[in-house]
Amino acid sequence: MRNILIFGxxxxxxxxxxxxxxxxxxxxxxxxxxxxxxxxxxxxxKDFPHGRAAxxxxxxxxxxxxxxxxxxxxxxxxxxxxxxxxxxDCLHHAKHLITASYVDEEMKKMDTEAxxxxxxxxxxxxxxPGIDHMSAMQLIHRIRAExxxxxxxxxxxxxxxxxxxxxxxxxxxxxxxxxNIVLAGIHGARYLENQQIKTLRYEELFExxxxxxxxxxxxxxxSWYPNRDSLPYVSLxxxxxxxxxxxxxxxxPHFMYGWKHIVKWKLTDETATYxxxxxxxxxxxxxxxxxxxxxxxxxxxxxxxxxxxxQPSKNESVEIKEILRKQLEFLGFYDKVTKVNKGQCSAAxxxxxxxxxxxxxxxxxxxxxxxxxxxxxxxxxTAKRLISYLIVKGENALRTAxxxxxxxxxxxxxxxxxxxxxxxxxxxxxxLPEIYEPVLAGLAEHNILFKEKDISP
Length: 457
Prior knowledge:
15 helices, Dihydrodipicolinate Reductase, domain 2, about 25% strand, Rossmann fold, globular
């Protein structure tokens, strides 16, 4: 019997694990899930007969290697920094590997050896990156097959809260790793616009949210900011030459407005430390703002502290100023009850604590994934525009849309690899028809599929 080994039992693992376990008997494999939190693993495996729980420190070389040696394929849901560790062991024991994380330089160096051993290291195989690559390439290949020349390609994706569960001024709730939310965009962004390379610093990413809008038939208007370095994907997608190319993250416009201030006040900083024991969120936020040179200027009508720099510029409306005040209040800027009690923490640690306290999905809350590709192309001397989009809602705080769209493409890929339907080797991302066609077909069986709308002028 074949064995699939999954490292990590966090937020994104639920649907992946259950998908594979429901197929285990028919497909003749077992599913071993390894995580330091044994109770968490057991809660994900439930009573499935082909599930195996393992609890150990991933840094334990001997134990980790023993589990990898006894597997046929490994799926890593661990932090990206740990993927090379797993990948080297997979090379040593000649095992296939799947991750949902971006390919880094260390992983790229393993391509030759993986090919020599007949192995596939499939990376960027989740949602974003993952389904975005697959759906983009399917669309690009189809337009080109019809004779189209693509001039602009904007690829958007966001993990949001479903409208029926949207009950806070941030219009957001956590459905994935909260640390990634805190640090999203911290390295800035680079993309192509009208044949010009644009480079934005972290502090600039959220400035143009009002102009950077996306209006889909089935959602409210969303805003986007450029995501990481888009330029390498121009050649990966085979789009050279092209005028405009950008990959983005979607958020509600109010979120973008509030987060612009969070970044401005350096609340995502990981360097400065604060003693948090026996201190409230209000005290710690105030301490941080004072370190930034922001003094107490006035008090609002409820006698609560508002620093001068929390006020938007004078040319912004009273309504948008009130939105920011509500966001700060909701996040805990005035919370004189909740104590952090986590010893020495950075501003980012304190912010993460606040997010996990204030923006957590309730048990019956639903999250929502929105992905969209805006494409402009010329065909038969006619300029065309279309939008291809995907909207997926979660069922509850456990079976989230995020867990579905990250986990299912990885699970489907694992089954296809083990059954010999995906045969390419080396370090790959899912831009080849051999990968994306069967995976997208498998996702469609779970009602994860794209719609298209012609938006030509």
